[in-house]
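Job type: complex structure
Entries:
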Amino acid sequence: MDVDAAVFDVFGTLTDWRSSVTEALSGTGGRAGLHADWPTVTDTWRRCYRPALKRILDGELSWRPLDALHRLTLDEALAEHGLEDLDDAERDVLVQAWHRLRPWPDAPAGLELLHHTRVLTATLSNGGISLLARLTKQAGLRFDCILSAELARSYKPDPQVYRMAADLLEVKPRRLLMVACHPDDLEAAARAGLRTAYIPRPLEWGPAAGRVDPPAVVDLVADDVIELAHALGASGRTRP
Amino acid sequence: MDVDAAVFDVFGTLTDWRSSVTEALSGTGGRAGLHADWPTVTDTWRRCYRPALKRILDGELSWRPLDALHRLTLDEALAEHGLEDLDDAERDVLVQAWHRLRPWPDAPAGLELLHHTRVLTATLSNGGISLLARLTKQAGLRFDCILSAELARSYKPDPQVYRMAADLLEVKPRRLLMVACHPDDLEAAARAGLRTAYIPRPLEWGPAAGRVDPPAVVDLVADDVIELAHALGASGRTRP
């Protein structure tokens, strides 16, 4: 596939938010003397995310950074599980768990391979610039550029976010590839004129969750970031 | 020195614009059958830059991307040297020379050392996001984040540019270090509340130019990026 740049979703597509956030919740919750099925609390927290995003995109809530949105949805999730005893400081620490997520095993090697091609790589996430710069640094996810929906003061799947990426990278939307494991992200990118690549992440919601159906229309499907890098012209032999 | 992030000037501080742009001018000019003292034409082009910036910051010219500004100043420089024969397409090619500059020999190794410290690194240049992402990729200048004055739709030394960097990286200005070889950049950063590090680049204007005086007030002076990395806590032994 012939593109000039590839932009990547981060939560889910490159990082295993579920195990990382569960660890943070069970650690902070445990120290506070609370007991819960922590993976389920994590799933609830993540499930509150899309409705909250929608309220912002619908104009019902004003735009705020992702950390503030995560704090709002954490309060909802804790209330749902009867875990109101966590105080403000503990909740703020939990929000920071999204800054330190474990990468999927193939992601560091795949991005390193891509870095050595002519294809420019960037994040395109709803996480803020600061969160993304810190997360990619500690997780060893090498990017040529950090882009965030924050720069458009909006969130994916707002078409403005995808167009902003094409504008800032000075590439035509048809020469820009959106890479994600979420069909709705890819469908919105396609509507904004971008090319799309789907990477399945069957473990995103844990070992018991099933494979998500790929989007109806997609330009490329790759098993992981290493396979994607080879499809985009990488010639290295790196394997994790 | 204890800081959370370091932002870098690029033209001059990390890259040898003079030899790179001279090569482009003599190549394009030579192919067009023109003869000139090309290093002097390069110096004229670069000398037209600050007055043009000032016209934008004074509101005399509307804000435009650096490529458009470089095109304007190229036209002035070529006219000054009687080189009006270059056509539009040739001039556009020359503007692109600023996207492919040679790094100073210590810069790739020094930035790699810094990447492995806890200090977040970013560009903070008047070059646009696309220019910086391409330039740093091809020059092997590793950054954790690409920031540009373009994101503030302004140019350094506007204090808004330095404050924007602190905001996007979510660090206090006093925990953010501006690194540059130009005293005026550092003085403006200091006025915006940032810490400052000076790296002399005596060859910036060629072998005949002298050493520039360091700014009157600066928090750190380092001979090159490797020495700076060690001052910020890097412990590797990389030498170029």
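Summary: Chain B touches chain A at residues 115, 120, 122, 128-130, 132-134, 136-137, 142, 144-147, 150-151, 168-171 (CB under 8 Å). The radius of gyration of chain B is 18 Å.
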